[in-house]
Each structure stands twice: as structure tokens, then as C-alpha cells.
């Protein structure tokens, strides 16, 4: 009788362990592991509509509670247009500082946003038909561009190719780089493809030619916003 009872108890314990292990495994494989852990952190943001990404996955806006796994880390990014992205990694490991129960993200305003305007034609090729002939059109295009950009990197009248150097405008927390490119698309009729390239970096000290720090931006500095329309109007 004792032997039977002993086997019955072992079976119950074994079954409980299997069930617990199965449940734990399910939790660990839900939402990239960050729902399992012993440390809960309530996240809040200064902007109620800011998007909260946990381990690269959008989980909410304005506030969200995470659980950091034992001996693991959870990365949080808070993103809102017009503000500098905030990023923080929370690690629940021995030897590290104790994690807080609450954490507030105070987003910094990106001054570059207010100094720029949205543009549907930025970073895309825009065709302009030139009716004044190649010599006159090329001269006017050069004049307009030189009024806006200090340095032309490449200019070849025969092939109809022109590219300015990158011009960087720096702000407190970010930088914007801009350049203008002209390509002759066809000679008869004379058509040019022009492109106003605008890129944004959240590294205020990023160098003009450090492309790894910049990303294409659907906004352009106000001073350049009308350059394409000006070229189109003057070469007709």
C-alpha cells in the first residue's frame, strides 16, 4: 500500500512539474521573452501619444508595463515625430543596480522639425522639361543652385550632370544634410531629372559624409523647399 501511495505522489509531482514547465515555456515564447520575469517596470512618457517599442515590437502608446526576465535585458524605444527618440535598456542581472518600479521617458523636442516642411517630392526624381535650349537652361540651373548651395561637387555640361556637396545644418540634438542632383534625362525634347535630397540624423555632430548616421527624411529645410519649382519656372 505504501509503495502504491509513493508512486501516486511521484506521479502527481511529475505531472505538476511538466504542466508548470509547459506553461513557463509558453510564457517565455510570448512576445520575445519580455513578458516573463521577476521585475515589473511601469513606463510612462511625457508625450501621451508617443509609441513604445519593446524589443523592436510596438506595444503601446504613452504608457506600458514591462517585465524584465531574470538574468536578461529588455530594450525600450520611445518614438514620436518631431521629438528625439529615447532608448533605454533594462537589465535584471546580478551585480547590476536594482531596477526601478517606474521609469519616465521625457522626450526632447527636435528643433529640426520646426525648421523644415513636409515635401512629397523630396528624395525623388522630378522631371523638368527645358524649352530654352541646353546652353541657356544649363546656365540658369547653375545660377539657381549656386544661390542656394556654396559648393558644387560635380558639374558636367556635356552629360548634363550636376551634384552639389552635402550641406549640413546642425541643431541642438540633431542634424539635417541636403544636396541637389541634376541629370539630363533626354535631349529631344530636353528633359532634366532633378532631385532634392534631404536626410536627418539624431546625432547633432554627424559629419556631412557620414551616411551611416543619416536617414532619408520626408521633410526639407525651408530655404530649399522652392528650388525645384524655381528651376521649372525659369527653364520653360
Write the layout of secondary structure elements.
Elements: H1 2-28, E1 39-45, E2 51-54, E3 57-61, E4 63-68, E5 72-79, E6 86-92, E7 102-105, H2 111-114, E8 116-118, E9 126-129, H3 134-148, E10 152-156, E11 161-164, E12 167-170, E13 175-187, E14 190-201, E15 215-216, E16 219-221, H4 227-234
Parallel strand pairs: 1-7
Antiparallel strand pairs: 1-4, 2-3, 2-5, 5-6, 8-16, 9-14, 10-11, 11-13, 12-13, 13-14, 14-15
Helix pairs in contact: 3-4
Low-confidence stretches: 1-37
- Number of helical stretches of at least 4 residues: 4
CA radius of gyration is 29 Å
Q: Which class do the helix and strand fractions yield?
A: alpha+beta
Q: In the residues, how many domains can be counted?
A: 2
Distance between the ends: 104 Å
Instruction: State the CATH topology of the largest domain.
Output: Alpha-D-Glucose-1,6-Bisphosphate, Chain A, domain 4
Sequence of secondary-structure elements:
HEEEEEEEHEEHEEEEEEEH
Provide the residue-averaged pLDDT: 86
Which geometry do the CA atoms define?
A: elongated
- Please identify, by name, the CATH architecture of the largest domain: 2-Layer Sandwich
How much helicity do the residues have?
Answer: 10-25%
Q: Estimate the strand proportion.
A: 35-45%
User: How would a textbook summarize the main sheet?
Assistant: 7 strands, antiparallel
Amino acid at each position: 500500500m505504501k509503495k502504491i501511495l509513493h508512486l501516486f505522489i511521484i506521479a502527481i509531482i511529475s505531472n505538476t512539474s511538466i504542466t508548470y514547465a509547459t506553461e513557463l515555456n509558453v510564457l517565455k515564447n510570448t512576445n520575445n521573452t519580455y513578458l516573463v520575469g521577476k521585475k515589473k517596470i511601469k513606463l510612462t512618457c511625457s508625450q501621451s501619444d508617443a509609441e513604445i517599442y519593446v524589443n523592436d515590437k510596438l506595444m503601446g502608446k504613452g504608457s506600458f508595463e514591462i517585465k524584465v526576465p531574470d538574468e536578461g535585458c529588455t530594450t525600450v524605444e520611445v518614438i514620436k515625430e518631431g521629438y528625439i527618440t529615447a532608448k533605454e535598456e533594462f537589465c535584471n542581472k546580478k551585480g547590476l543596480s536594482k531596477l526601478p518600479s517606474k521609469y519616465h521617458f521625457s522626450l526632447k523636442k527636435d528643433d529640426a522639425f520646426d525648421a523644415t516642411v513636409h515635401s512629397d517630392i523630396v528624395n525623388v526624381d522630378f522631371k523638368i522639361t527645358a524649352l530654352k535650349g541646353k546652353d541657356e537652361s544649363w546656365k540658369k540651373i547653375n545660377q539657381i543652385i549656386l544661390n542656394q548651395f556654396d559648393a558644387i561637387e560635380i558639374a558636367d555640361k556635356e552629360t548634363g550632370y550636376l551634384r552639389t556637396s552635402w550641406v549640413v545644418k546642425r541643431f541642438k540634438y540633431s542634424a539635417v544634410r541636403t544636396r541637389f542632383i541634376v541629370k539630363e534625362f533626354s535631349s529631344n525634347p530636353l528633359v532634366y531629372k532633378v532631385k532634392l535630397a534631404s536626410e536627418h540624423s539624431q546625432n547633432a555632430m554627424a559629419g556631412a559624409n557620414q551616411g551611416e548616421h543619416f536617414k532619408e527624411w520626408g521633410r526639407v529645410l525651408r530655404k530649399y523647399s522652392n528650388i525645384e519649382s524655381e528651376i521649372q519656372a525659369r527653364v520653360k
